[in-house]
Amino acid sequence: MDTTNDIAKCIDKCIFDNSHYDIGYVIHKCLKDKHRYIKNNTWEYLNLSNEWVVDVNNQQIIYSIRTIVCCAFTERSLYWANIKTDTMYQDTELISNKLLIISLKFKDNKYISMLIKECKQFFIV
Predict the structure, then answer these.
(1) 64, 57 Cβ separation under 8 angstroms
(2) Do residues 38 and 125 make contact, with C-beta atoms less than 8 angstroms apart?
(3) pLDDT in tens, 9-60
(4) What interhelical angle do 20-31 and 4-13 show, nearest 10?
(5) What are phi and psi of 51, to 5 degrees?
(6) Left (φ > 0), alpha (ψ -120 to 50) or beta: where does 3 sit?
(7) Exposed site from 18, 44, 95, 97, fewest CB < 10 Å?
């Protein structure tokens, strides 16, 4: 499993280039052990019994994106909000706001649908 530091670096890449590809990669880093893409728009998730179950209407991956991934972006935003000076970024408040804007997009159904399409390439079995 990826460390928090690896995920934080991937999230930081989204600060200036918040493409669907980059955010999809972060989603993969956060959820790769919990979800997988089979084929023909079929996703599976790992249930509490450690069995892979078909994700009907992508509800489980949508829920995971809205909770786990959104929290990762929000936590990273808070990290930058609490840093007053940094050698890499002059305006850490701006960085924090950009990440917060990305995390707010996770509430939009159309945006999540686009991300799920982009994520297929990372989760394919």
Answers:
(1) no
(2) yes
(3) 999 999 988 899 999 999 999 999 999 999 999 999 999 999 999 999 999 9
(4) 170
(5) -115, 140
(6) beta
(7) 97
